[in-house]
Specification:
Blueprint lengths: L1 E4 L1 H7 L3 H11 L2 E8 L4 E7 L5 H5 L2 E5 L2 E4 H4 E4 L10 E2 L2 E2 L13 H9 L1
Antiparallel strand pairs: 1-6, 2-3, 4-5, 7-8
């Protein structure tokens, strides 16, 4: 999940990056909440608020004022995006992974190449 902060919108509402980080950490959790017991079984209960969609992230409450709430979507653009958008590797039109192979001194180059191909 990528969150692009809108600094002017944050400044207008008096919100800092630390406020946003705190709200995300506080509202995106999975914690044990208790258990249900019977004479034959026991079930654990978990409070699961791990956010998954962009809309769920946009609804994170940053501040709750008497005259309204400030949500993450009010001060940031939220999107699903790659972890690193600076490099892409494609082979034959398909997304791929690049690996660097460095032979050790004294290693046979042909054996290394054949090993990589295998």
């Amino acid at each position: 999940m990528r969150i692009w902060l809108d600094m002017p919108a944050m400044a207008a509402r008096g919100i800092t990056v630390a406020d946003i980080e705190f709200a995300i950490r506080e509202q995106n959790v999975q914690i044990p909440s208790g258990r249900i017991e019977s004479n034959m079984r026991e079930f654990s209960i978990k409070t699961q608020s791990d956010l998954r969609t962009t809309e769920e992230f946009r609804r994170i409450i940053l501040y709750d004022y008497a005259d309204g709430r400030v949500r993450l979507g009010d001060v940031a653009e939220v999107e699903i995006a790659p972890e690193n958008d600076r490099t892409n590797l494609r082979v034959n039109g398909q997304t791929a992974i690049g690996l660097g192979v460095v032979r050790q001194s004294g290693a046979n180059v042909l054996e290394v190449a054949n090993g990589v191909k295998r």
